[in-house]
Design goal:
The chain is mostly beta strands. It is about 15% helix and about 35% strand. Strands 20, 23, 24, 25, 27, 28 and 31 form a 7-stranded antiparallel beta sheet that branches. A 6-stranded antiparallel beta sheet has the order 29-30-26-22-21-43, with no helix packed on it. A hairpin with a 5-residue loop joins strand 4 and strand 5. The longest helix has about 35 residues. The protein starts with a strand and ends in a 5-residue tail after the last helix.
């Protein structure tokens, strides 16, 4: 599409530029637009986003001159959607018809484009088989007299049998009656049967008494003292159990040198589950129950476990309760079958602060620091901070407009997170959790962890697919968990390997009344599928008075260089109208793929014909050309008092920005020490951490 600009004679020489809808055009940012040396503008391939008013402007130090505006309208011819499935036959019995339909929405005609040609509805005739109710046949002859002095007769529901959904016959299909007119000898024969059954019952009772006596005798000769309690431990359930002392010198005890002097008693609740012989051998031969400092343990014999009897065992110790990491970030909003507690909050509960930052004072016991509603957390383990010391540790997310963009084809897959102070050195690695938006498939993504250096540039720390001794990284479908020895600013950066690389986006639509009371504004956002990205959108919309109109949905955006198209469909024609050139908007691929500092992608203005119209129903279609599509069905009231708030799922850590000491962990430190003592040293049979990982289907 060429647009010519008349030649200006300027003295001194002037500069010529083009404007689109009063905004300057930069041909360096859009390869589809070419500004020639003769001041003409060439649009190589017409797109919907190229519709608008174009103006040529020349200016020098003396004066400025504008040309008349040239209006460019790009029209789109309509296309049929796929046919729907055939409807069911409208006649329950006999001849009827069924139909299928299609709509002219693939795409819908725009800006004067031609409507689809052909029929939108097809009908065909159909025939439904009429139901036939079942009916009984005549009764059969009476059977011969049975030993119970009864004979019977039968009939079948086959005259006719029920067909095509017809009702089954009502009544009994079998009848019986006495065939000796009460003169039956069955009662005489039963006397012998009663004597036989009584003798068998006496024999069974004698055997049971004998077995009980043998069991009691063997138990009295046993060397083990046992209290019989609930045996639900054998089913893997949680129960309270206490380790007790028994006699010295027994070879079946895990440690026969334990002393019976016990001063302090604590009760520990936990599961007992012996899955296979290898597990039992691993527990009995390992050092899992070897004594540590000031701790004494005894376990019942395996014979009593096999009987389903659980001995109360007392757990004694003076070691302080430590901790183990508690909780990992969960996927935000979606949902497939996971055991998690979801906290439903309204938009008003989300913080409107532009600075996403948390700070807390931690000591030798460690703890967990969380930025609410973002999925970002930092776990400080026990012993990472020296004793008698307290450090103020901070965790922050860099604002989107201030973050450092990667170079080349690399893109940020999550927030840029800073933990500090950076000069602190911990003796035990801390666990940093960062959410990401990539569909982490190693065939399509190369994902790396990078850190900002002192010059403000990104330096690579590691690749998540490779082993390294300096840093460990675990990537799950929604977050990345990193073990760090030093604080700083970190980010997860990905490079697409193929066009099938997928960036997961969350699509949301907000709305509010404009200054003109007859207009209603719709704003469509496509942001990374991370809690922090959506929180920024919610905060911005609160300042503008926007309201979430539909539950956000997930869009799989491929790296195939195809743009994103946003359109508003099904607007009620006699109640509302959408302003020209705004029904369908197209967003360039690079703006969506690389993530714009301002996530607003589409803005639509709808005008109602009458102030009495208070309800708005329409459909917002967000789709990538040659890719995934999502439909958001909007049904809302434009009046604040009648509007129904849309709730959404907040992150489960939102109510706990900081957890200090043992409260932040799940497993007591003393139990964790026993687990480590069992698996840290390689055994002769290979019963170490590697075998434990294999039994839990963990590759690394």
């Amino acid at each position: 599409v060429p647009v010519a600009c008349s030649t200006f004679s300027c003295a001194p020489p002037c500069q010529v530029e083009w404007l689109k809808n009063e905004e300057p055009i930069d041909s360096n940012l859009d390869e589809n637009i070419d500004t020639r040396a003769d001041h003409n503008l060439i649009i190589r391939q017409a797109r919907l986003s190229d519709s608008g008013n174009y103006t040529c402007m020349a200016a020098n130090i003396v004066a400025k001159r504008r040309s008349l505006s040239a209006t460019v309208v790009v029209y789109v011819n309509g296309g049929w959607s796929s046919w729907t499935e055939w409807s069911s036959c409208n006649a329950r019995c006999g001849r009827g018809w069924q139909k299928r339909s299609r709509t002219c929405t693939n795409p819908a005609p725009l800006n004067g484009g031609a409507f689809c040609e052909g029929m939108s509805v097809q009908k065909i005739t159909c025939t439904s088989l009429c139901p036939v109710d079942g009916s009984w046949e005549a009764w059969s002859e009476w059977s011969v007299c049975s030993p119970e002095c009864e004979h019977l007769r039968v009939r079948e529901c086959a005259a006719p049998a029920p067909r095509n959904g017809g009702r089954h016959c009502e009544g009994l299909s079998q009848e019986s009656e006495n065939c000796t007119e009460g003169l039956c000898i069955q009662d005489v024969e039963r006397g012998g049967d009663i004597a036989l059954y009584s003798g068998l019952a006496a024999a069974v009772l004698a055997v049971a008494v004998l077995a009980l006596g043998v069991t009691l005798y063997r138990r009295s000769q046993s060397e083990y003292g046992v209290d019989v309690i609930d045996s639900s431990a054998l089913t893997g359930g949680f129960q309270t159990f206490n380790f007790k002392t028994v006699r010295q010198g027994n070879s079946l005890l895990l440690n026969s040198s334990l002393q019976p002097e016990l001063t302090v008693s604590r009760t520990y609740s936990g599961p007992i589950c012996l899955q296979d012989p290898l597990d039992k051998e691993l527990m009995t031969e390992s050092s899992l129950f070897n004594p540590l400092a000031d701790i004494k343990v005894k376990v019942q014999s395996s014979f009593m476990v096999s009987l389903g009897v659980s001995d109360r065992a007392e757990y004694h110790g003076k070691a302080p309760l430590g901790s183990f990491p508690h909780g990992t970030p969960r996927p935000f909003g979606t949902i497939p079958a996971r055991n998690k507690a979801l906290l439903i909050q309204n938009l008003a509960s989300i913080s409107s602060s532009s600075e996403l930052r948390s700070t807390a004072l931690f000591g030798h016991l460690g703890g967990r620091l969380v930025i609410p509603n973002t999925g970002v957390s930092l776990l400080i383990p026990h012993g990472a901070i020296p004793e008698e010391s307290s450090w103020e540790i901070s965790l922050a997310i860099t604002h989107k407009e201030c973050r450092l963009e990667p170079e080349g084809p690399e893109v940020l897959l999550g927030p840029e997170v800073s933990c500090g102070p950076p000069e602190l050195a911990v003796s035990t690695p801390c666990a940093l959790s960062i959410p990401h938006c990539a569909h982490a498939d190693p065939q399509h993504w190369s994902i790396r962890l990078k850190r900002r250096d002192q010059q403000g540039k990104w330096e690579e720390v590691m690749s998540v697919e490779e082993e390294t001794t300096s840093c460990y990284c675990l990537l799950d479908p929604y977050a990345c968990h990193i073990l760090l020895n030093s604080f700083g600013t970190y980010a997860l950066i990905g490079e697409p390997i193929s066009d099938c690389a997928v960036r997961q986006l969350k699509v949301a639509v907000f709305g509010c009344l404009s200054c003109n009371s007859l207009d209603y504004n719709l704003r469509v956002y496509c942001v990374d599928n991370t809690p922090c990205a959506f929180q920024e959108v919610v905060s911005d919309e609160r300042l503008q008075g926007g309201q979430l109109l539909e539950e956000p949905k997930l869009l799989h955006f491929k790296g195939n260089t195809c743009s994103l198209q946003i359109s508003v469909l099904d607007v009620p024609p006699f109640l509302w109208r959408i302003k020209p050139f705004t029904a369908c908007q197209e967003v360039p691929f690079s703006r969506v793929w690389r993530g714009s500092p301002r996530p607003l992608l589409g803005a639509f203005s709808l005008e109602r014909f009458s102030p009495t119209t208070t309800q708005l129903c329409c459909t917002v279609c967000v789709r990538q050309l040659q890719g995934h599509e999502q439909l958001l069905h909007v049904q809302t009231s434009v009046l604040e008092a009648e509007r129904e708030n849309i709730t959404f799922f907040a992150h489960e850590d939102s109510a706990f920005p900081a957890q200090l000491g043992p409260k932040a962990f799940k497993i007591p430190r003393s139990i964790r020490q026993r687990i480590c003592a069992t698996f840290d040293s390689p055994g002769a049979k290979g019963k170490d951490w590697q075998m434990l990982a294999q039994k839990n289907s963990i590759s690394r």
